[in-house]
Amino acid sequence: MGSDTKMSGFELKIEKKLDVWQEAIGTFRGFETDELVVTVFLDDLRLVFPEDMKETIKPQLHGKKGRKIAILRTDIPDKPVLVRTIETN
Questions:
Q1: Contact 53/25 with Cβ under 8 angstroms?
Q2: Residues β-bridged to residue 69
Q3: Is pLDDT at 15 greater than 90 in this prediction?
Q4: Complete DSSP assignment for 20-73
Q5: Which residues pair with 24 in a beta bridge?
Q6: Contact present, 75 and 20 (Cβ < 8 Å)
Q7: What mean pLDDT, rounded, does the chain reach?
Q8: 12-16: long-range contacts at Cβ-Cβ below 8 A with a sequence spacing of 24 or more?
Q9: Is the pLDDT of residue 7 over 90?
Q10: 1 vs 59, higher pLDDT
Q11: Based on the number of CB atoms within 10 Å of its own CB, is 39 exposed (0-12), middle (13-18) or buried (19 or more)?
Q12: pLDDT of residue 4
């Protein structure tokens, strides 16, 4: 199993697969990948995406660890997932 960020010991309460045009918001804790899925950790939420989305998701998460982000699942072929940083004052 390959992994970009180990989250072992991280207690999660909810696992979710986003439907098209659903958005999840939370503090980005890290992500893991294996042969089947990409798992993104936001607070106590675990978002699961197909492994073939890794190259779409990974660059958008770069430098965002510890920041509040929103992840939106789309039906846009070139952009199936969009990530944005939520600024807090």
A1: no
A2: 26, 85
A3: no
A4: TT-EEEEEEEEEEE-SSEEEEEETTEEEEEEGGGHHHHHHHHTT-TTSEEEEEE
A5: 71
A6: yes
A7: 87
A8: 12/41, 12/44, 12/45, 12/46, 13/44, 13/45, 14/44, 14/45, 14/46, 15/45, 15/46, 15/48, 16/45, 16/46, 16/47, 16/48
A9: no
A10: 59
A11: buried
A12: 43
**Residue range 66-74: average pLDDT?**
97
**Could you identify the residue written with the tokens 């958008």?**
60
- In angstroms, the CA 24 to CA 8 distance is 22
Residue type, 68: K
Q: What is the DSSP letter of 8?
A: T
Cα distance between residue 50 and residue 34, in whole Å? 10
Q: Is the dihedral of CA 54, 46, 28, 89 positive or negative?
A: positive
